Fold this sequence. Notes:
Blueprint: H1 18-26, E1 43-49, E2 55-60, E3 65-69, E4 75-82, E5 85-92, E6 95-104, E7 110-112, E8 127-129, E9 144-149, H2 150-155, H3 162-166, E10 172-174, E11 188-190, E12 199-202, E13 205-206, E14 224-232, E15 245-250, E16 258-266, E17 277-278, E18 289-290, E19 299-301, E20 308-322, E21 326-342, E22 351-371, E23 374-395, E24 400-407, E25 410-425, E26 430-446, E27 456-458, H4 465-468, E28 481-483, E29 487-502, E30 505-521, E31 523-525, E32 530-536, E33 558-566, E34 569-585, E35 590-604, E36 610-627, E37 634-645, E38 660-667, E39 670-671, E40 678-679, E41 682-683, E42 712-725, E43 729-742, E44 745-747, H5 750-759, E45 774-776, E46 782-787, E47 794-799, H6 801-804, E48 812-823, E49 829-842, E50 874-875, E51 882-891, E52 896-905, E53 932-933, E54 936-937, E55 949-958, E56 967-974, E57 982-985, E58 990-992, E59 995-996, E60 1003-1006, E61 1011-1019
Amino acid sequence: MTLTHIRGAAASSRARQPRLLTLAIGASLALGVAGTAFGQATTGNIFGQAQPGQTVIVSGSTGVTRQAVVDETGRFRFGNLPLGDYKVSLQRDGATIMERNDVTLVVGAGTEVNFNLDIQATSLDAVSVSASALPSIDVASVDSRTVLTAKDLERLPLARHAEAIALLAPGAVSGSGAFTGPTGQSLVSFGGASVSENAYYINGFNTTDPLAAMGGIGLPYGAVDQQEVYTGGYSAMYGRSDGGVISQVGKRGTNQWKFGGQVLWSPRSLASDPRNLYFPDQALPDGYDYTNASQPGTIYRSRKNNTSWTTVYSAYAGGPLIKDRLYLFVAAEAEKQQGTSTTPVTSSQPANNQHATSRPKHYAKLDWNINANNILELTSIGSKQAYAGSLYDYDYATGRQGDRFGFDTSTKTSSDITIGKITSYVTDDLTLSATYGINKVTSTSSVPGDDPTRPFLSAVTNQDPSITGGTPIRNGVTSSTIGSPHSTSQARGLRLDAEYRLGNHQLAAGIDNMRYNSRNIGKTLSGPGYAWIYGKTARPDVALVPSLGVGAPGGDGYFVHRYISSSLTSSSVDQKAQYIEDRWQVSDRWLLSLGLRNDQFTNFNNVGQAYVRNTNQWAPRLGFAWDVLGDASFKLYGNLGRYYLALPTSVAIRGASASTMTSEYFTYTGIDPVTGAPTGLAPIGPGPVSSNGEYGQAPDPRTVAARDLKSQYQDEAILGFSKQLGSDWVYGAKATVRKLQTAIDDVCDYKKLEAKAKSQGIDVDAVNISHGCLIFNPGQTNTFLLSRKDGSGYEQVRMSAKDWGFDGGAKRKYYALDLFVEHPFDGKWHGRVDYTFSRSYGNTEGQVLSTLGQDDVSKTQDWDFASLMANSNGVLSNDRTHQLKIYGAYQVTSEWMVSGSLRVNSGAPRACLGYFGNDESDPAGYRSSYRFCGGKSSALGSNGRLPWTRQLDAGVTYRPAFAGNKLGFNATVFNVTNERKPLSQDVRYQTSPYTVSNTYGLPTFLQPPRYVRLSASYDF
């Protein structure tokens, strides 16, 4: 059951209406919420109306009991209550005269419970009322969010991770498959933003990947109590995201002990094979030839029997260690996935990879009600992943597997999180809380049996057949890069929050600080530290990289280059923020939310020197909610907000720290039959060259970024409504507009910098002008420092967009119209339909570049040179014009339930990157990286779009009555129709001038094929 835009009813002006009294009772099931709605919260609120002077008492399943006297306006409120089920009692003269039972809280919001009845209770006997499910609208929220509870997750056919849940939110789409989170899950794009611009929380602590902000840690699936997905308009209490927010709240123990376990199995026999892939065979423009004329139309990658099987074991236990005082909840999950994957025919060594991945997780939470006014929470979370693969020879000619010859790169990652939170109810109106957490991430990477003398070989099918006899020479090395064997990242966070009720104002203020440290991050090449990359050009008389002095290979056009890459470093980031907020109930019908946040970000290099420092980043937030008819049946709401985004620690890689990335070009006369290395080398260039000037030099931290660099930030406006339709439905619409105001990327055209320095009268021979890349705000005028060679200080250079050669600045705009209709779960069925029409356009996707799968956060190839931005204006990678989402569940009988989920998206825009202009030049030395295709301009989307995708999942659950419905069996079919459409493709059009890549247009990621998941569970 989705809990977006739903709330209990009744204000004093409508308390006498019997139907609205029923709606107030319906609110008890938390179909809807009202009150303070703070993003990434871990608590809920209860509020309502009664006769002034009466006493209201709330008592929860977690042992929390609080009471308050109804004020002179007839209102009461209990804030920051732990999630759970509550009984709300109304007392007069010490006697209970009415109760509301089964009041279930929803995270970050309030549940309304009213006692203004058109009766006079003269008896001391209490009137006890239990909740019923009726749709109602939350007229006290100004944000855009979707909340799913543990019951919803149990009913719906979903994969078992946070991103699968998040995709149910309106406007959320899957990002490029090249980007994955800490445990391998694909990431999500919200509102056109890139996948690194989201924030993750667990129990109020920021668990976003500490290194690159690529995803975050999730709870064991059975430990999730509720998950919030924010798609806009959230409180000033939170920031550091201009995409979306995924916030999970874990379960906690109650006064009743509960235990359970589950076994899940996805058998290989019930899984379909992925699609085989073939080299494209398409008509080429006049004057162009394929790199390898024998490959078009032939097999590129066999996927036969490339299936996998998965087993998951999970268990939980929760209950009181001391009744009403001390509670424990623990959960554990062990997942193991095994399978086979065949590498492409172009691989350095075609192989069947027999791989296995294990993903154990644990969660433990201790809740201590110290006394009536103080609560202490302690949380421990662990999430690990280990991957290993064995490589067996695979003969594409016969389709047979041979002997094992080596191992794939083995990786291990782990995240261990500890969170402490204390909440103090100082008075009925004042609440203080403090949260402190630590997230420690470790990562190791190695290749078992790696031979340090053998280099990685790339594009071996481009070797000169006059030397090889037509059979590529390989050496068995399959891993090109490895990470540090001892890479660690750590995040420490402190939150202090104060909330005070003053009349009709709900005031909040606090601090939100994070500290990130990463050590031994980055990658280096395997083996001897270099790789050999073979190539072939259709125009042997045309220079390969003339801008770097690399000439033509001559002969038959065969050449090779030695590639060196190393980027290991360390870095850290300080992120601090302060906020104030006022939620002002102007009248019974009008709520205003006024907030202001100030963020400060500082990035440090490997020796602790600051290279980026941003302060006084004021982010206002303004929202309103209007109860149009005064009966909570029709709400109009909206908000305006500014959101700042920090640079993660990974920006120091290839940015603020030394790195090497060079290529040295040769012709060759032979190939070593053992190592696969070329022999008889003759240079066709000046030696090692680097288009980014990365020769291993350590940059001056004061010169790597603009001195007046502004953080990336985005402005957002939302206007929407929700309305009841009859007695069982809710429908609504929402319009969203987002505009990226400032972006951060890097620029590498040192010649333009040198020219501007000369024009300002600077002696360029007396200063150090880096041949590397500089961090800047694209399109804005930035100030850079050039260190004097004599050590006497720095010279300043002001560079505008025009100085760099750019026509304009960074642009990303997004607009969307979301429509929905929902039937909340009423004990029989639940259904929801969302349709989103949207457009994401401009010249900047954001921090990453999906077309190339480039995860160098805020250091993509865009903006490196002006020539790379020619024809850049168009739709963006995460643009999906049409989205349709339908999901729900139906209780056929007391024992049987069926459920389903359908997601239909229009395709992503196609891309084609080639050499520059109709003369196939290479002004930046980036080879096939310009927005030209066969000599013609090629903006993203100008070559059409990928096919529409459809994902239909269905499940059936059986809970036999003879076991008291505690025993459950489930079967879920994912991708029922076995759609295997491409989600992205190879966008590199050429390997050299006038020479088309044989893999251009090949799918790089496709929809996962159909598979079945079976499960058995028992709860007692």
